[in-house]
Write a structure and sequence with these properties.
By secondary structure, the protein is of the alpha+beta class. The protein has helices at 7-16, 19-37, 49-80, 100-114, 121-140, 179-182, and strands at 87-96, 156-163, 168-175, 185-191, 201-204. The protein has a 5-stranded mixed barrel.
Length: 212
């Protein structure tokens, strides 16, 4: 998963990918609370299992949002320091943001069938966290790309490119607004970290135009 980036970046990227699931979970819990008490927010001092789950998911949601902010900072820093990195030429394929639908379904469907259970919210939370740990172990030990819908909130997309020098597939971050101009064309990009035979992730240099 994102070979060539730092472990901190990979963990932050992974945590940020669950912003939709945490948001969806919070909405479910709020709606359930409203249906049973006619109050939208759980403002009473009485501590219940649902309130504990709500607080924990809210903390996870905030943590995932902070992780997304860190991802944005890292991408910005790489872009600002691109002149000091080895610039490469790449051909941008027509595939971008691949696998997001499948990833969302694999995360949201379990939430709908576990945490939405009225009588066992803690069991639902544990099931959701267990699934997320399993997914992290899978992606951290795999060369597969981890889809992340949340990066579109910071106006980034992930494109699949071919490094024309080494003829290998690379996942490249780019501003979403530039995607339509970049696909099926050549552009310059920089790798994360030091370039080696296992480098898998890069960033398109901002301000560069597509060269068809």
């Amino acid at each position: 998963m994102l070979v060539g980036s730092t472990k901190k970046f990979r963990i932050s990227y992974y945590l940020s990918s669950f912003i939709p699931s945490y948001m969806f979970s919070l909405i479910i819990l709020l709606v359930q609370h409203y249906e049973t008490t006619s109050n939208f927010l759980p403002l009473t001092l009485k501590l219940t299992s649902k309130k504990v789950v709500f607080i924990l998911i809210l903390i996870l949601f905030i943590l995932s949002c902070l992780s997304l902010c860190y991802v944005k900072v890292v991408l910005k820093n790489i872009s600002n320091n691109s002149s000091s990195r080895g610039i490469r030429q790449g051909y941008i394929t027509r595939n971008y943001n691949v696998g997001m639908r499948e990833f969302l379904l694999s995360v949201l469907i379990p939430i709908m069938t576990t945490i939405s259970v009225q009588d066992s919210p803690i069991t639902g939370l544990i099931s959701m966290l267990f699934l997320q740990i399993i997914l992290y172990l899978f992606y951290s030990n795999s060369s597969e790309y981890l889809p992340n819908v949340s990066i579109q909130l910071i106006s980034y997309s992930v494109l699949i490119a071919i490094d024309t020098k080494d003829n290998r597939e690379v996942y490249i971050f780019s501003k979403t607004e530039k995607v339509s101009d970049l696909v099926n064309g050549n552009t310059e990009f920089v790798y994360f970290g030091n370039i080696n035979k296992n480098s898998q992730i890069g960033l398109i240099i901002e301000g560069e135009e597509n060269e068809n």
